[in-house]
Specification:
The protein is α/β, with parallel strands linked by helices and 418 residues long. Helices cover 50% and strands 8% of the residues. Strands 1-3-2-4-5 form a 5-stranded mixed β-sheet. Strands 7-6-8-9 form a 4-stranded parallel β-sheet, with helices on both faces. The structure holds iron/sulfur cluster (SF4) (2 copies). Residues 25-31, 48-49, 52, 82, 86, 88, 90 line the site of one iron/sulfur cluster.
Length: 418
């Protein structure tokens, strides 16, 4: 795609990157076929090709997007289905992150995004907000819609205590030493996922290190357009990891995993942390990658239970991991069904469910429907955001892959499975 940035504009390092990313697009429109928002509205502006056109227009013309253009951009889930489909390899993620940072939003919108950046990535603040939300339950009909949706989340929050920082020794022979990311929102909404992950990994011979005060990986802030907050979170996390000598970093929340694998790009302009960020990005593995490396045996407990597998976008389109979760479940003795159109986003998409409730809920209902149609007894996923979003409309219990693999290797049966 041709761009018309002036030489003056190209002195801005972000616009320089944007120019090269825009030039990758040949405007063929193949990406529209797999874009969830384009599928809902059939409107060119709601597809990746249209959004790239809008980004090119306002970035090159040195203006702000119109209200209509802004809506089209905001309705993007950043699900990255378009990047899986695109034959030209357009890097839509980094282009849209740059475009978001160039948008000067109205005060109300900025305040809303600031509130989300200040609460969701901080486990203590998030837990406090869940408690306050629970107290506000009787006033829910008087609350603004975003706060009302946060109150709804408290209904689904699990009361299990968060996993404590420390070292969890490998059972029998140690085969690996790994840092574990406990996540911010996940730890507050369902800490059982982390407990199941530690039981599974230690049973398979991993010594698991959970550092204190690691904080958030920066994903939420980055995708809300708060790049500097995201970088601050990354620096804090790197500092908490550096004292530990490990073989890998294991991540059981695919949204966080995808972002950490991208730290090299996000931190490239920081002379003090760029190298460390790249190092940890290279060391990071999704839980399914680690378990696949260690191997898992068939279990007598699970008796071929049929599992509908929901692959989060951050796993299948972001990290390009599609085979391992299914292969692991089958190796453990489950039978696995993939829902129709499994490439489509469930609508959770980080803070999208709070910011774009209508599209988000429609996609959530569609996903629950195709998962139900599999006839499976249980739904498994690898990201708390998807699980929390699918649950209200789902006909089956929704659990994390770690919980099923933990059960198969001797852990407790996940709640909700008969
Ligand atoms: S498929 Fe790729 S090259 Fe074609 S319009 Fe979409 S982003 Fe551009
Ligand atoms: S990231 Fe997802 S929602 Fe956004 S344009 Fe690409 S396919 Fe569509």
């Amino acid at each position: 795609m041709e761009t018309n940035f002036s030489l003056q504009q190209l002195l801005d390092p972000e616009l320089k990157v944007a120019e090269s990313l825009l030039q990758q697009c040949v405007h063929c429109g193949f990406c529209n076929a797999t874009c969830p928002t384009y599928q809902l509205s059939q409107d060119e502006g709601d597809g990746p090709r249209g959004r790239i056109w809008i980004m090119r227009a306002f970035l090159t013309e040195e203006r702000q997007p119109s209200a209509e253009e802004q809506n089209y951009l905001d309705r993007c889930l950043t699900c990255l289905a378009c990047t899986t489909t695109c034959p030209a390899g357009v890097d839509y993620l980094h282009l849209s992150d740059i475009a978001r940072r160039k948008i000067d939003r109205p005060l109300k919108d900025r305040a809303l995004r600031r509130v989300l950046t200040e609460i969701l990535p901080h486990p203590r603040r998030f837990r406090l907000s869940l408690i306050l939300s629970a107290l506000a339950r009787s006033f829910v009909k008087f609350l603004p819609s975003m706060l009302a949706r946060m109150v709804d989340m408290t209904e689904r929050a699990n009361k299990t205590k968060p996993l404590a920082a420390g070292t969890y020794p490998a059972q029998k022979t140690r085969r690996m030493r790994a840092l574990m990311l406990t996540g911010c929102a996940q730890q507050s909404l369902d800490a059982e996922i982390n407990h199941a992950t530690v039981r599974l990994l230690t049973r398979l011979g991993v010594e698991v290190v959970v550092p204190a005060h690691a904080g958030c990986c920066g994903a939420l802030a980055e995708h809300l357009g708060h790049h500097h907050d995201a970088q601050d979170s990354i620096r804090a996390m790197i500092k908490s990891w550096q004292p530990h000598d490990v073989d890998a970093v294991v991540i059981n929340a695919s949204g966080c995993g995808f972002h950490i694998k991208d730290w090299g790009f996000v931190m490239q302009d920081d002379p003090h942390f760029a190298e460390a960020a790249k190092y940890y990005a290279g060391l990071s593995r999704d839980l399914s990658e680690i378990v696949a490396q260690l191997g898992i045996a068939s279990s007598p407990h699970v008796k071929g239970l049929n599992v509908a597998l929901h692959l989060p976008c951050s796993l299948q389109h972001g990290q390009k991991i599609t085979a391992q979760p299914k292969a692991l479940l089958e190796a453990a003795g489950f039978s696995v069904s993939l829902p129709a159109d499994s490439h489509l986003c469930c609508g959770a998409a980080g803070t999208y469910a709070l910011l774009q409730p209508e599209v988000s809920d429609q996609l959530g209902r569609n996903k629950a429907e195709v998962l139900k149609a599999t006839g499976a007894a249980v739904i498994a996923s690898s990201n708390m955001g998807c699980m929390n979003h699918i649950r209200p409309a789902a006909a089956q219990p929704v659990v994390h892959l770690a919980q099923l693999l933990d059960w198969a290797t001797g852990g407790p049966k996940p709640k909700g499975i008969n």
